[in-house]
Design goal:
The structure is a single chain. 69% of the residues lie in helices and 0% in strands. By secondary structure, it is mostly helical. The longest helix has 23 residues. The chain is globular and about 50 Å long. The model has no long low-confidence stretch (mean pLDDT 97). This is Carboxymuconolactone decarboxylase.
């Protein structure tokens, strides 16, 4: 699916001319609702490092080159090193316990659509109730978005 041509862009798309926005804007009602929801997750209460680890692991699982490319940049801004970013793709990489928990959440949600009791208990120790909800919704949202981006063949910007 092709992005909207520039002459059809709104002010947000002119300021953020990413193919994800200009393509999804082909369905204006869903696009506007998605922007609000996605923005609430992207700028939510989770630590930026946790958020980006979860998103990158989800992009990796779904094979979403677009999601991966966009969030590598954001992960760097959140303080992840290039080595850490590449390690997200490795199941056997060594991580600190807090990072390992976030990656395990993304792994379990991807493979089973649920979390084990042990993972949930660990989440309860690390995050408050809103944080637990936000992390699960974040992974589920970026999983859905990866499927959409892959299916619509949204191209990575030059």
């Amino acid at each position: 699916m092709q992005p909207l041509p520039p002459e059809q862009w709104d002010d947000f798309q002119k300021a953020n001319p990413l193919n994800v926005f200009t393509t999804l804007a082909r369905h204006p009602t869903l696009y506007r609702a998605w922007l609000r929801f996605g923005g609430a997750l992207l700028y939510g209460t989770l630590p930026a490092r946790d958020r980006e680890l979860a998103i990158l692991r989800t992009a990796h699982h779904r094979g979403s080159a677009y999601e991966w490319a966009q969030h590598v940049r954001i992960a760097r801004e959140a303080g992840l090193s290039d080595q850490e970013i590449e390690s997200v793709r490795q199941a056997d990489a060594t991580w600190e316990p807090a990072d390992r928990l976030v990656l395990r959440v993304a792994d379990e949600l991807h493979t089973g659509g649920d979390l084990s009791d042990a993972t949930w208990a660990a989440l309860c120790e690390r995050y408050d109730e809103p944080g637990r909800i936000e992390l699960v919704m974040l992974v589920a949202h970026y999983d859905m978005l990866a499927v959409v981006l892959n299916t619509l063949r949204v191209r990575i910007e030059d």
